[in-house]
Design goal:
single chain; 363 residues; alpha+beta; five-stranded antiparallel β-sheet; 24% helix
């Protein structure tokens, strides 16, 4: 299997399966002398880990990260950094009944047809378990940004919609995001989501979600105008996350409702001489290059495919049958996608920052 790597200058490769002994990654391109704090990485992993509330999968994984190479005396050495996490709470017997049956909306059928063999336990390599290593890599990417960009870039993600229930953007409270079970920025919405997801769980169903990522203090000039556009790389990074079915930058699909006049982000000059934009429909990216405004992107995560309702499917021998997926699954997998989205945005920004540094010697 190829295509296990992401990035250009900052490049990481993940390995491992959902029910294997461990998952891990190799991160290449980290400059020497960057402070690598294991506790800092662990803090981000703790935000993603399963079993934190009744609204996510009850698989109990501590997700303790181990740094195996590339760090000495707390600093990166410039050599590849190896990270790993042991899998501790995998129950492979939960999947024994489906080893020869394809779960609808999962990658079972396509995976088998492509490779001729698949690890049916928890989805194997196609499991969202792999995203833990993206979060760990993202933590290191944030440290790189702190060192190579003069202004501290802040990356914040939140769930803005679960099922048909949306937040109010006028009530966005950044401090509240990490103080509830949903990464929700709107205090008035959490009880609505609690009741809705409780009902979804009891019925053995699942639902989708929309996640918004905001990156502030991004310098002007990250990204190239053709095949390495910043927004193209962000879209690729976010679309690579499990169960993601759509990505938008700035106003995204809603720009269809605007005209060239209303969509234009007009520009003025402040008294300080700095550029001021009067709006941000473009989401902080113009012509594939960061404008210095906040970068705003959203991605939609489909309903968890594993549900306790009987669904029509086929088996490995192409016989028609039905299936009920047992095991421990997220009623809304989009909730735990927030730190994953933040990590992928950080990785893309760090990769482009290192590219810009090599191009002009400054950012």
């Amino acid at each position: 299997m190829a295509s296990n790597s992401f990035g250009n200058i900052l490049k990481f490769t993940t390995y491992g399966e959902s029910h294997g002994p461990e998952i891990g990654c190799i991160i290449d391109g980290v400059p020497p002398g960057i402070k690598i704090d294991k506790e800092y990485i662990q803090n981000d992993l703790n935000r993603r880990r399963p079993g934190k509330s009744k609204f996510v999968t009850q698989r109990k994984e501590k997700d303790i990260v181990h740094i195996n190479s590339g760090v000495f005396d707390g600093l990166s050495t410039g050599t590849p950094i190896s990270l790993s996490i042991k899998n501790e709470d995998h129950k492979s017997k939960d999947y024994s009944e489906i080893k020869n049956i394809y779960r609808p909306a999962h990658a079972d059928y396509t995976y088998q047809e492509k490779y001729g063999v698949r690890d049916y336990r928890g989805g194997g390599r196609s499991s969202a378990r792999e995203t833990a290593m993206r979060v760990a890599t993202g933590a290191i990417a944030k440290k790189i940004l702190d060192n190579v960009v003069k202004k501290k870039i802040k990356i914040v993600g939140a769930v803005t919609q679960i099922g048909s229930h949306k937040i109010s953007n006028t009530k966005w409270d950044e401090k509240y995001i990490n103080n509830n079970d949903f990464f929700c920025p709107d205090r008035n919405t959490t009880n609505i989501w609690k009741n809705y997801l409780t009902d979804i769980r009891k019925k053995g169903l699942s639902c989708g979600a929309i996640i918004e990522i905001r990156a502030s203090n991004v310098p002007v000039g990250l990204g190239d105008p053709i095949y390495q556009k910043l927004d193209a790389n962000l879209a690729s990074a976010l679309m690579s996350i499990n169960a993601v079915k759509g990505v938008e930058i700035g106003d995204g699909f809603s720009v269809v409702n605007l005209t060239g006049e209303t969509n234009a982000d007009e520009m003025r000059i402040r008294k300080s001489g700095k550029v001021k934009f009067l709006s941000n429909h473009a989401g902080g990216i113009l012509g594939g290059i960061s404008s210095g405004q906040d970068i705003v992107c959203r991605f939609v995560v489909k309903p968890t495919s594993s549900i306790l309702k009987s669904r029509k499917t086929i088996d490995k021998n192409h016989n028609e049958t039905e299936i009920i997926t047992k095991g421990r699954h997220d009623p809304c997998v989009g909730i735990r996608a927030v730190p994953v989205g933040e990590a992928m945005v950080a990785i893309v920004l760090a990769d482009h920052a290192l590219h810009q540094l090599s191009l002009r010697g400054k950012i």
